[in-house]
Design goal:
It is a single chain. By secondary structure, the protein is α+β, with helices and mostly antiparallel strands. It has one domain (2-16, 28-247). Helices cover 17% and strands 46% of the residues. It has a 15-stranded antiparallel sheet that branches. The longest helix has 10 residues, at 46-55. The chain is globular and about 55 Å long.
Length: 248
């Protein structure tokens, strides 16, 4: 079974086999990164927690940039829908789907010209008629629109990209939930440049992994209540520069 699909701003190129007839591509190994988010091993006190917050990258820009990558990752839903077998009960698919995304740009009226706003590509692995939870690709001057507060922001991504959905997705199903985005390349947000950055997020909560000077990790969390830092023993809440961090 070989097929090609073309949608607005996106192309899907599938190399799928029934019952094990096609190779399953390697996926990015994000297990260590996921483990560090799930169970950070750093240990803080109130002073160190405050220092982590003070030394952190600008969270509004980081949140805007990383959240915008969700537009690229969401094309897993197009791949899931458009590779659904049209007939045949019990058909098992495996193989790969290459997704080519024409990035829409920063303006309210999308411009899918690759020469203007760049492209992104993804390779999805399919095994037992399920899209594997982790996948990767590459962005080439991909321009996206994000928001810092309510103000629109220009986002540009260059280099390798990788995502983790948190679970495999059955062909024909749609994904929603918490997304982990890892950008080993470069992310530009309104003139601020991030390199080799990651975040795990929903619409309401964003987590950013930070490596401490001793090599251990903590997780900085941004939500409606403000900023907190999660270490091996729990969370430190840091409401403002004038208020000491407290352990909860």
């Amino acid at each position: 079974m070989n097929s090609r699909f073309t949608l607005c701003g996106i192309g899907l190129f599938a190399a799928l086999g029934c019952g094990g007839a096609a190779d399953i591509p390697e996926t990015p190994d994000l297990r260590t990164l996921i483990s560090n988010y799930d169970a950070p091993n750093g240990e803080l006190d109130a002073t160190r927690a405050a220092a982590v917050v003070a030394d952190a990258p600008p969270m509004p820009q980081l949140a805007a940039g990383l959240r915008s990558t969700g537009l690229i990752a969401s094309h897993v839903n197009d791949a899931s829908t458009d590779t659904t077998p049209s007939k045949g009960n019990g058909v098992r698919l495996q193989g790969s789907v290459d997704v080519e995304v024409r990035c829409p740009g920063q303006l309210g009226d999308p411009d899918y010209d690759p020469a203007v706003n760049g492209t992104a590509s993804l390779t999805l692995a399919i095994a037992d008629t399920r899209i594997k939870r982790t996948f990767g690709g590459h962005a080439d001057a991909c321009v996206l629109k994000g928001y810092i507060g309510t103000a629109p922001a220009r986002i540009q991504i260059d280099g390798n990209i990788a995502f983790d959905l948190g679970r495999d997705i059955g062909i024909g199903q749609r994904w929603s939930g918490r997304l982990l985005a890892y950008l080993p390349g470069q992310l530009e947000v309104e003139g601020y440049t991030f390199k080799s950055i990651s975040a795990r997020f929903t619409d309401d909560v964003l987590e950013h992994l930070i490596q401490l000077g001793d090599g251990t990790f903590v997780v900085l969390t941004l939500d409606a209540s403000g900023v907190s830092v999660r270490d091996k023993s729990g969370s430190w809440y840091c409401p403002s520069d004038q208020t000491p961090c407290t352990h909860g």
